[in-house]
Each structure stands twice: as C-alpha cells, then as structure tokens.
Amino acid sequence: MKLKTTSSFALVALAISGGAFAQTAAPAAAPAAPEPEYTISPNLTFATDYRYRGVSQTSRKPVIQAGVDYTNKNGFYASTLIQNVSWIKNGSNPTVAKGPLEWDFWGGYKGEIAKDVAYDIGALYYWYTGNTNTANGYANANTLEAYGALTYGITTVKYSHALSNVFGNPSSKGSGYLEAAATFDLGEGFSLTPHLGYQTYKNNTSIPKYTDYALTLNKDYAGVTFGAAFIGTNKGGNAAAIEAGSSKDIYKSSLVLSINKKF
Predict the structure, then answer these.
(1) Do 202 and 167 touch, CB atoms closer than 8 A?
(2) pTM over cut 0.90
(3) CATH fold of 8-262, please?
(4) Closest Cα partner for 63 from 78, 46, 76?
(5) Count of C-beta atoms within a 10 Å radius of residue 228
C-alpha cells in the first residue's frame, strides 16, 4: 500500500509515532539460473566383477572404473571410461597374451522424436592398451561399434553393430548385439532395471550366439549409487566358458555389487 503525504516531515512523524505502518511488497523471486551450455561429470565405480553383455571381463574378480562424461544441452555427448580387465591374459595362451586395461571412448547425439519418445545414436571404441591378443590366434581385441537406441517411457531398445572384428574374434566384422531394458522408479531413491541381450557373431560359426540377462537394484543416497545386480548368460556351465588362465566360468550367473560416485 502506498502512503500519500504532503511533506517529508509528516512521513517522518508518522514513522516515529507508530501511527502508521507501510506494508512492503514481498521481494520478487530471483530469476532461475540459465541452463549451462554443457556439463562435465567425472565418476568413479568399484564393483565385485566387471560384467559386459553378461560375460565377466575380470575373471569374476573386482574392477575399478574411472570415467568422465561430457553433455551438451544441444544433445551432443562424449564419454571415456577406463577399467582393469583380465580376459585377454587369461585366454588360451595366458603366458603370452597381454592387455591389462580397457579404455573406452564413445560419443553421439540424443534427442526427442515425440512426447516420451527419444533416440540416441553414436559410436563406441574399445581400446585394450598394449594388447597382444593375436598371440592367442585371435584378432586384435580393439573394437569399434556403432549403435542406435529408441526409448519410449521407461523402456529402451538398443542395437550395436561391429564396424571391426569384435573383441578379438576373427572374421567377426558385422556382428551385432540387441538389447532391451526398462527402469522402474520404486521411490525413496530405489530403482529396478531388468535387462535382456542377444549377441551374434557374423562369419564365425565356431563362436556360439548367446543370450544374457540382468536384474539390477540401485539405491541413490547422498550422491552415491549403490547397486546389486544378478547377471548371467545361457552359456554358463560348459567347457567353452572356462578361461584357461584362471579356471573361471566367465559366463556363470552371479551377484555383482557396486558403488558409484559422480563428482
């Protein structure tokens, strides 16, 4: 309410005597901070096993993963992740083959097609530092894939296509991996994600196609994500699944625990 006075003296007198009170309007809300052009998010993960497409990459032993994610508000993104692996060394000739680290680089573009429908296209390069996988009679382990995904609501379907030999398998260029997953928000920071995948190897009948599955329960708490996942494949329990250098069945179903922190 605005007070009308005939002189500054009258206004001062009213204020001193307490005979009148001016009601001050509430301050305007501060404008929302503009959306940043991009974000950069380092992250660190510890897990009891490194499972990729259902298969253990660390002979069912722990893994440490460190990565950085770049996301632009225009939809472009790029990421890198490095972790320890043992599957190259523990192959058919463990005294010769080397390749202790897997360093991944990927990037792409995400956008919306319509309400609740989103797409994601990109490419991913798996670099196994210093690998000598060819000593085992296989191809070089380094792998390049292109991928595309569609998301509707909580469900995502993704296909990855090998542009090179895939994970050291000779004559496997053109192999594919099809997967589907859904993420259910359970509330209180909990989420549940079932996953199903199917890996095929082109031009290589000696390597069987296989299906992998996972059921992951995550809990977000104070900026940290705790995970428990039951992961396996339909190839566990046969001789082809046993690593020569570790005597471990790398396709066997097991529970994997993890903890992830984004900075």
Answers:
(1) no
(2) no
(3) Porin (2.40.160)
(4) 46
(5) 14
